């Protein structure tokens, strides 16, 4: 069996999808658990030079031997799963989330005239729970919304029939300001109150379509009658309904201790890929994917059944229920279910997604041999001594000399290798000097490789004609590596290929696969440079605009740039978004600047 783990050196194989990752030391112990919007980018960040300068990160990375990951549907699910796994495993390098605090939920009590309140303690004898919520603010917004729509009591009185009949309680301030209809004095019937509770449950269960449509209609009607303040209040309630998250697959209080197993075959039927998720007390605490080699004559169901037994034994699971995507013969004391709808079905789909991804990775890793046909053609057309398995291409980008930047893209085995892409801010050149910029970035790139002892590419491609190529060659000469690496320039107009010390270009057949590869690499370098240039221009635009506003300091400016990134996005933001980000007083300053045209 082969487990879904990568060695420390294989971190670039992780997917660019949300999920959680686990680092293991030499003894197989989990030393760190983290979440990520993109698993590949987050894990790769640990191995950058900037992060390794941090003493704690350096020590953590030095102990990593293996990396395991689980794909989930969203960042929200990743956050919840990270919380579960840290509390379960108590990794040495995790400082936060080790306590016994869980994410808050909303409880609707099962007493007469039920109350609605938030809690971190789950006790199903007290009522029905909804959640959990990763944001306390979002959860409180939901509770406030329900209380604005429906008149739900906030007191803790025991509203039994006898207590109400004996007039034991008096209405409080909540009744007088219109937030409660006075069930404590019998001013509201239990049936009428329970109708509001049923509507609140629909909202908490995510069945908000009817309520949302009602708010939209009221908002449109109020706006048509020029009642803009009323329309805005309906809009805010509608936005709250749209934004809040009612529940998650990762923590679902209604799913008790359960095991989830899914399977899929390889194309040649020689392997089965099986994902296992263990759920305890409504939370996923373990997940693993394995590949089981098998003979063609072996029965798929029997191999799957044996693997289930083996994985349950490994993790010590005694869960009485198994959810799966295929029917198998059940054990005497275990219920096997193939769910058709609902949250259990969604759990099976999540497990199957992990199995499919592992299958895809395994199959692609077996077919990552170089596309030798194209590379051999390129080698022959350019008269190269070595097969160009590693190609790097440079391009500049600026507008009339402003915000000059450059890019370098890397192709390995004829395919983009994005982890080796590089962006360059031009440091030594002023004004629109493409030749000087090209010399600078080529020199910086290969001075770094030379210093670090990293091997040079098999081919360097310069986006430009003879001038840019000569500038790049000058940089290589200053480093004493000119002639060690083949270098060419490609001019856009006629797709001419220039060589150093040769004034006449060559023309490769327009239908040639080798020319198409060079064009693809050149276009990718151009796209990467343009994207970086736009980002830098937008950042400087918003920086300079914010600098002119009195009362906005450096820390506030940094927050705004990080959140919005451009003046256009800042102008489109609502006042509420700004208040949440920088506070009410600074939000008003920025709104005034926008109205005056300063921004």
TrEMBL record:
Cell compartments where the protein resides: Cytoplasm
**What Pfam families does the entry give?**
GIY-YIG, UvrC_RNaseH, UvrC_RNaseH_dom
Which InterPro entries does the entry mention? GIY-YIG_endonuc, GIY-YIG_endonuc_sf, GIY-YIG_UvrC_Cho, RuvA_2-like, UVR_dom_sf, UvrABC_protein_C, UvrC, UvrC_RNase_H_dom
GIY-YIG domain segment(s) = 16-95
Which PROSITE patterns did the record assign?
A: GIY_YIG, UVRC
| A GO CC annotation given for this chain | cytoplasm
SUPFAM superfamilies per record: C-terminal UvrC-binding domain of UvrB, GIY-YIG endonuclease, RuvA domain 2-like
Would you say which domain of life the source belongs to? Bacteria
Q: What is this protein's function per UniProt?
A: The UvrABC repair system catalyzes the recognition and processing of DNA lesions. UvrC both incises the 5' and 3' sides of the lesion. The N-terminal half is responsible for the 3' incision and the C-terminal half is responsible for the 5' incision.
This chain's protein is named: UvrABC system protein C
- Which organism encodes this protein? Ekhidna lutea
**What taxonomic ancestry is recorded?**
Bacteria, Pseudomonadati, Bacteroidota, Cytophagia, Cytophagales
- The gene that this protein is the product of is uvrC
